[in-house]
Design brief:
Protein name: Negative regulator of flagellin synthesis
Organism: Paenibacillus contaminans
Family: Belongs to the FlgM family.
Pfam families: FlgM
Keywords: Bacterial flagellum biogenesis, Cell projection, Cilium, Flagellum, Repressor, Transcription, Transcription regulation
Structural class: mainly alpha
Largest sheet: none
Distance between the termini: 73 Å
Order of helices and strands: HHHH
Shape: elongated
Strand content: under 5%
Length: about 90
């Protein structure tokens, strides 16, 4: 049984050889680094998702008021308004 084939000597790590060849072509030393670019639209969306603490306090206050009115049984919504909001999703 022959263990060391002459054809397999350079095939030990083809990825390493390929990586070294790429660096010699580009002239860069060291490893390449990945780069991420975020578009202006994506940055704008990220900015709108962040809620300020003042907005969060107002939201929590309104939510607590709604919870209290539901618990007390005084919260009522017009069925027509609810139907108008649901209608576009049913089309």
């Amino acid at each position: 049984m022959k263990i060391n084939e002459t054809q397999r000597i350079n095939a030990v790590n083809p990825y390493k050889n390929n990586n070294l060849a790429n660096h010699s072509i580009t002239g860069k030393k060291g490893k390449r680094r990945d780069e991420v670019q975020i578009s202006a639209e994506a940055q704008e969306l990220l900015g709108t998702q962040r809620v300020s603490t003042q907005d969060q306090e107002v939201r929590n206050k309104k939510l607590n008021e709604l919870k209290q009115s539901i618990d007390a049984g005084t919260y009522h919504r017009d069925a027509r308004q609810i139907a108008e909001k649901i209608l576009p999703y049913l089309k």
